[in-house]
Amino acid sequence: MEEVRLSERERRVLAEMEEWLDRDEPLARRLRTMGRSPHPLPSLSSSTAAGARRRLPALGIAVLAVTAAVLFVLAVTTGTRALIWAFAVVWILTLLAALGVFVRWARRRAGEERESG
Predict the structure, then answer these.
(1) How far is CA 40 from the centre of its chain?
(2) What residues contact 17, with CB distance under 8 A and at least 6 apart?
(3) pTM of the model
(4) How far apart are CA 2 and CA 20, in angstroms?
(5) Three-state SS at 39
(6) Which burial class, exposed, middle or buried, applies to 69 when counting CB atoms under 10 A from its CB (0-12, 13-18, 19+)?
(7) CB-neighbour burial class of residue 29 (10 A; exposed 0-12, middle 13-18, buried 19+)
(8) 71 vs 89: CA distance, rounded Å
(9) What digits encode the pLDDT tens for the residues 4-13?
(10) Backbone angles phi, psi at 62, to 5 degrees
(11) What is the crossing angle of helices 81-116 and 46-78, to 10°?
(12) How far apart are CA 104 and CA 109, in angstroms?
């Protein structure tokens, strides 16, 4: 390949850009940790694995919600005490799981706002 030479002005602009980027600590932190996954999945790329890990709690909440709905219908139609209690337990688990996902989302949002602001 041919060597490309930069003009003095282009080198100065490039040096200023590098200096500005070096001072941006949130960017440097994100670049240092980019692509690293605490629980890597061997067959998936890191972005696909991260997306799957983010969707997993939502999938669990959806399954719990559907289970709660089915138990609710069965409990109402039959009036069985065991089904009513099963519905109550599953519904509480669904709400707690949703609350946990919401809290994690809110903390992540607050951290992003702190880094950008």
Answers:
(1) 15
(2) none
(3) 0.53
(4) 29
(5) coil
(6) middle
(7) exposed
(8) 10
(9) 788 899 889 8
(10) -65, -45
(11) 150
(12) 9
Using alpha carbons, select from 83, 85, 58, 60 the residue that is nearest to residue 70.
83
Tokens (6 digits) for 40: 């890597």
Q: Which residue has the tokens 């005490």?
A: 81
- 48 CB contacts (<8 Å, ≥6 apart)? 41
Q: Using CA atoms, how far apart are residues 115 and 111, in angstroms rounded to an integer? A: 6
- The pLDDT of residue 80: 92
Nearest one of 103, 90, 39 to 61, comparing CA atoms: 90
User: pLDDT digit string (tens) for 36-84?
Assistant: 655 555 554 556 666 666 678 888 999 999 999 999 999 999 999 999 9
